[in-house]
Every structure is written in structure tokens, then in C-alpha cells.
Design goal:
The chain is an all-alpha fold. Helices cover about 80% and strands about 0% of the residues. The radius of gyration is 21 Å and the shape is globular.
Length: about 375
């Protein structure tokens, strides 16, 4: 059954924006701290850019998730462009550390909305056969954004990069306003004809009656879920436990730290290749590996792929940590012959994480919870 490629492409815009903003510290943490003419910011102050972004991801969603069933997935995705656009504008015109913190906070808030709404949307509209592949396009777009930020940020200043990035969410907001809502949501709101119209758009065909009836039957069997239902209902408790475990284990591998501090890590490591080029190579390999990952994870099975991936990723992170520990704490040890390892190690990390720990948690969060409880469950 067909999912229109134009729909996949359009929704990738907002994921691409997420990647751009998340990787912003990679090229600009060093640039800002070294530019004492326009910015009077220390390395310690700049290190909070990533923390403030995470705070934005934690605080805003809980205010929105309660009304997710009212405003819909489409409106949530449209709302994500507001903090994204504001974040780019602040970075373009401001040099004050507190306003830059605000810009990072808003970028995190936008990410929280996207990561809560988009996996749910994908889980509701994609058929099981292609859900993993289509969901992977969202993740690939995030990494494309990170690669784009490292490329643009390596050759442009903060202002120029911000204006370039600003165009993406603006284009998304304009075009996405004309796109249909999730058919599941429309059925839940008793908007039957709109749901059929949405299905016709998504499947690129006129005859959707059979699938519409199946969706309607599925929705009718479910009642609207409350926050308490996450813990009271056994199936929801299992889904919540699995979801929290998947997300925490993913975070602990360091995948997001690598993305935010890519050039900073390579600058501290030294080596014959510049931090800028190393970051471009690393993020480029990331895009390639994640483009192939969905096929491998589907063939291996998600459980097996996840367990193998997280074990190997842990070994790579341990080896990277050992290198930097020796380099920092024991400078008497000569590591000149191993300056190549930080780049090679991070590429190995991408290879082993791409088919499992890097992709599966995001895909599974769109599938674990029942339709009525998804917005609340995916907050975690």
C-alpha cells in the first residue's frame, strides 16, 4: 500500500530543522568562545548550550500533551515551527549569553513537540510493512540536518547560518498548513469524511473504504486515556516501562553528546584532519549508515538488532572514554600514534548504533502505546 513520497518529504522538513538546531553547538561552541569581539562568552558558559536545550525538551511538552487529543498531530507539528523560527531569529540578532540560552531552550521545546507528535503520526498512518522504513526517513532527516549544520557552520558565521536555517521551518509551516490531519485523529473526533479524504491523500488512491472501516473499528474499541491510565492499565505500564528503558539506554550511549559536541571533541583530540572536516566526515557517514539501517533492523528483528547494537556501541564508547582519559589524566603517555582513533571510533559508533540503539527507540515509541494514550506515553 502506497504512502505518498511528497508527504514523507514534507514532514522531513521539520525533522531536518531539528537536526540543524540540535547540532548548532558543534560548529559554534568554539567559534563563539574564541570571538571576543562580538561575544564575551567563556567555554564554561557555552557548555550549557546543550543543557538548556535538554531543559526545553523536558518542560514544554507536559503543557501541550494534555490538549494533544484536541488540537491534533498536524497542529502540534505546526506549533513546533514557532519555537524553531524564534530560536533562529534570536541566534541571528543576539550576542547576549542569556538570549542565546533562550534560543537553545526554544529549540529544545520545538524538538520535544516534534519527537512527541511525529512518531505518533507515523505510527498511525503507515502500514506495518513499511513503518520502519518510513519512520527511518524521519531519523535520516534529523541526521541530514546535523550534517548540514556542520557543513554550513564550518564556512559561515552564526548570523548567516541562522538566516539559512530560518528558511526551512518557514517553508514547512506554509506548505504543511495545506496538508491533511492523521485519519486516526479525525476518526476520534468523529470527522469521518475528513478521515477518508486524509486516507486518500496518504495512500494515493480513491478506494480506502476497507482500511477506513478497520481504523474506525480500532478507534471505537479504545477509550480516551488519562495520565493515571499509564500506570493503572497493565498493557500501558509495560509499554511505558519499555519506552522509558529504550529512551534512557539510547541517551546513555552518548549519541546526542556526539551530535552536539562533534567539532569540539575533534578539536580536543587533535589529529591531522581539521575538526571541521572530521565533523563533516562523521555526520556524512551517519547519514549513509542510517539510510541503510531500516532494512537491516527489519531483517534481524528489532529485539535482536537492539541488543547487539547497544552492546557494541557500549564497547566503542568505552574505548573512546579510555583514549580521552589517558590523554587528559596521563599526559605522560604518548598517544601521537593514535590521534586517528577519535574519528575512527566515532565512525565505528555510528556503524554499530545505526541499525539498533540509534533508530529503534524512536520507531518503537510510535507503536508501543494505544492510540488513546499515545500523546501522553510519548511524552516520556
Amino acid at each position: 500500500m502506497c504512502i505518498c513520497y511528497k508527504d514523507v518529504f514534507l514532514r522531513s522538513f521539520v525533522a531536518f530543522t531539528s537536526g540543524l538546531l540540535y547540532a548548532w553547538p558543534s560548529p559554534f561552541l568554539l567559534k563563539i568562545t574564541q570571538d571576543k569581539v562580538h561575544y564575551n562568552i567563556s567555554e564554561n558558559e557555552a557548555s550549557y548550550f546543550t543543557i538548556v536545550h535538554a531543559a526545553g525538551m523536558l518542560t514544554l511538552p507536559i503543557l501541550l500533551v494534555s490538549i494533544a487529543q484536541i488540537i491534533g498531530r498536524k497542529t502540534l507539528l505546526n506549533l513546533s515551527t514557532i519555537p524553531y523560527i524564534t530560536s533562529f531569529v534570536l541566534k541571528a540578532v543576539c550576542t547576549n549569553i542569556w538570549l542565546l540560552y533562550l534560543a537553545r531552550f526554544l529549540a529544545g521545546a520545538g524538538d520535544a513537540i516534534v519527537f512527541a507528535a511525529l512518531p505518533v503520526y507515523i505510527g498511525e498512518i503507515a502500514t506495518p510493512k513499511i513503518r520502519g522504513i518510513w519512520g527511518n526517513s524521519f531519523i535520516i532527516a534529523v541526521f541530514l540536518g546535523q550534517c548540514g549544520m556542520n557543513i554550513i557552520g564550518s564556512y559561515c558565521n552564526v548570523q548567516v547560518t541562522s538566516y539559512i536555517g530560518l528558511a526551512i521551518p518557514v517553508i514547512f509551516l506554509i506548505i504543511f498548513s495545506f496538508m491533511p490531519e492523521s485519519p486516526y485523529y479525525l476518526i476520534m473526533r468523529n470527522r469521518q469524511e475528513e478521515a477518508k479524504s486524509s486516507l486518500r491523500w496518504l495512500r494515493c488512491k480513491e478506494d480506502v473504504e476497507s482500511e477506513f472501516e478497520n481504523m474506525k473499528s480500532s478507534v471505537e474499541k479504545q477509550e480516551s486515556g488519562s495520565w493515571g491510565d499509564l500506570l493503572r492499565i497493565k498493557a500501558n505500564r509495560k509499554a511505558l516501562t519499555a519506552g522509558v528503558f529504550l529512551r534512557i539506554s539510547q541517551l546513555l550511549t552518548g549519541v546526542y553528546v556526539f551530535a552536539a559536541y562533534t567539532q569540539f571533541i575533534f578539536a580536543k583530540a587533535g589529529g591531522n584532519i581539521s575538526p571541521q572536516m572530521s565533523a563533516i566526515i562523521y555526520t556524512g557517514v551517519t547519514v549513509i549508515m542510517y539510510s541503510c539501517a531500516a532494512y537491516l533492523s527489519n531483517k534481524m528483528g528489532r529485539r535482536q538488532a537492539y541488543m547487539i547494537s547497544i552492546f557494541l556501541a557500549g564497547l566503542v564508547v568505552l574505548s573512546e572514554a579510555t583514549y580521552f582519559y589517558l590523554d587528559t589524566v596521563h599526559p605522560e603517555i604518548n598517544l601521537e600514534s593514535y590521534k586517528w582513533y577519535p574519528l575512527v571510533g566515532m565512525i565505528l559508533f555510528v556503524v554499530v548504533s545505526s541499525f539498533g540503539v540509534g533508530i529503534i527507540p524512536t520507531l518503537m515509541l510510535g507503536e508501543l502505546f494505544a492510540t488513546s494514550i499515545k500523546p501522553k506515553g510519548n511524552y516520556f
